Structure formats: structure tokens, C-alpha cells
Amino acid sequence: MQLDLFRSPLTDPAKNLALEEQLFRARAGEQAHVLLYRNAPCVVIGRNQNPWVECDVEWLTERGIPLLRRASGGGAVWHDLGNLNISFILPRRAYDPDLFLDVVLVGLQALGISARRCERRSLWIGDRKVAGSAFMLTGRSAMIHACILVAADLDLLRRSLKPPKRGLQGRFIQSTPAHVLNLTDVRPGLAPQQVEDALANACQRELGAEQAPLERGTPGEPLLDKYRSWDWTYGRTAEFEHQVGDAVLRVKHGRIVEATPISLDGCLRDCPYDRNAIATALGPEQAKLWAHLLREVAPGAGAAG
């Protein structure tokens, strides 16, 4: 298995997620890759999650913090330049999460940090979580990636991943809350670049990885457009219902497919699940009547027209 080690110079979250998926989709034969990258502040949810359940969409929008959906499963995570992300992109036969996450532990050990892997394949120091993992599998390829808290802004992490309680019901995968810790809490002064170097060295020693340059330019435009799109981030959401008093909205692919009572249904069918879009669809007079409903729906999701 030929393992190439890539270090992304990008910090644009959409570009790095697109690059990660591009490497995954283009992988052939016995090729394998390791990708190390950091992102500017953002929230990234798993493929099968509901953004309105996982984070405070309104709060993020007001502050210009991007929300993105990745191609793999798992829970919602906060990214900033104090995080380090590592992705192992492999032939399906080589899929072994424990083995590759143990390589991460070897890298941390070289920095004098003793962490452990739990049964859910996250990494812990004592009773605090320092890294979560997620996975993606197709017929011929596998991806194992981890998000490591080095010197992240934990206040922003907690606030952004604190969704309002709005009573949404549906079949979506919810994150499992955990108390978290930065590596700098146990190794003051540690820089993300030092962790990146230690993990790169561990991949070279333990897996025989060879550092390789990334091709110039950005990831393919179709993938980049996907990660920046409303249709992927919000429209990919599984069907759910939102009940507020005597009103019920049934939402599929980010749009209202049915509303009760009947007076709402005629106005809101195919309307994006977004406070501003719903208010526009209702019109001024109806919006006043349904003010209690509008208060419970988050605005500013960049709703598609």
C-alpha cells in the first residue's frame, strides 16, 4: 500500500472538505493518503445530522461563522486554527480505525502526552475528550478522520454547539455531549504546528508514509460548490417535524412539505425551513398571527429561493 502524506496550506473549511473528498473519490488501486489540515472558525456536522438540532444556526449566522456538512458520519464539531484534522484515506480492505487512531496516539506520545482510545474511537486524557473521529466507507475506499483539540477556543465551541431547545422530532443522528480538553491544558505552549509535525513523523515511522506535495490550485469546482451550497448543508437534512402550539411543520430536504392547520399549508408548501422565508411566504398579516411559530424557527440559514 503506497501511502502519501499531504499537508494542506488551506484554511478555508469548504476547500479543505472538498479536498478531502476529492482525495477519497479519486483514490485508486493500492493508493492511500494521509491529509493534515486546519480550518478557520466553523462548525462541521456529520452527513446524517440535523443542523437545527446540532448547533445554534441563528447565532452562527449573526457572527458570520460558517456551518458545513461533511461527507462522513459522526457528530458535530467545532473547527478553528487551534484544531488539527487528520484523515486517513485507504483501500477498503485496509479499513482499521483502531490501528490508524493508535498512530495518532503514538504521535501524541512523542510530545509527552499520554492519551487513550475509548470504545467509541475517540481520544481521551483522563475524563476529558481531546479528539473525536468519524468514518466513511464505499465499495472500494475508506476514510478515517479525527479532529484534535490543540488550542481551540473552547468557549466558542460550547456556545456554537448549544442549540436552542425547539422540540424538533425526526430520525437524525444526534451528537453525544462530552467534556473536552485542549492539549495545551496538559502541555502549555504547545502549538498546532508541533502536533502536525509529530503526527506526520508518526505516520512516516509507523506506516511508511512519504510526504508529497499537493497539486497547485483549489479542489474541483463541483465539490467546492457542493460544500458551500444550501442544498448540501441544509437540504441534505433527513425529514423531521416541528410542532409549535397548534402548528406542525413537516420538513424534508430543508423545505416544508406539509403544514397544519390547512391555512398554513397553502402558504408554506415548498418554502425553505427558515424564519425569514416563512415570514415572506405568509405575508405581513398572517405573519402577525403566527408570530409564536416564527419565533421558534431559526433565521439566516442562507435559505435557497
Short key terms for the protein model shown above:
305 residues; alpha+beta; BirA Bifunctional Protein, domain 2; 2 domains; eight-stranded mixed sheet; four-stranded antiparallel sheet; 11 helices; 26% strand
CATH topology of the largest domain: BirA Bifunctional Protein, domain 2
Physical arrangement of strands within the biggest beta sheet: 7-8-9-10-6-2-1-12
Q: Do you know the CATH architecture of the largest domain?
A: 2-Layer Sandwich
- Count of spatially separate domains: 2
Largest sheet: 8 strands, mixed
Q: How would you state the average pLDDT, rounded?
A: 93
Determine Rg (CA atoms, Å): 21 Å
What's the overall geometry? elongated
Order of helices and strands: EHEEHHEEEHEEEEHEHEHHEEEHHH
- The N- and C-terminal alpha carbons lie at a distance of 47 Å
Instruction: State the CATH superfamily name of the largest domain.
Output: Bira Bifunctional Protein, Domain 2
Q: What is the gist of this entry?
A:
This protein is an alpha+beta fold and 305 residues long. It is built from eleven helices and 15 strands. The chain folds into two domains: 2-233, BirA Bifunctional Protein, domain 2, CATH 3.30.930; 240-296, no CATH class.
Report on this structure.
- It is a single chain.
- With 305 residues, the chain is an alpha+beta fold.
- It has two domains: 2-233, 2-Layer Sandwich (BirA Bifunctional Protein, domain 2), CATH 3.30.930; 240-296, no CATH class.
- It is 33% helix and 26% strand.
- It is built from eleven helices and 15 strands.
- It has helices spanning 13-26, 51-54, 57-62, 97-110, 154-160, 192-207, 221-227, 230-233, 262-268, 275-289, 291-296, and strands spanning 2-7, 31-37, 42-45, 67-69, 77-79, 83-91, 116-117, 123-125, 128-137, 141-149, 168-170, 210-211, 240-244, 247-252, 255-260.
- It has an eight-stranded mixed sheet, sandwiched between helices. A four-stranded antiparallel sheet has the order 11-13-14-15.
- A hairpin with a 2-residue loop joins strand 8 (123-125) and strand 9.
- Helix 1 packs across helix 7 (221-227) and helix 4 (97-110) packs across helix 6.
- It is elongated and about 65 Å long.
- The model has no long low-confidence stretch (mean pLDDT 93).
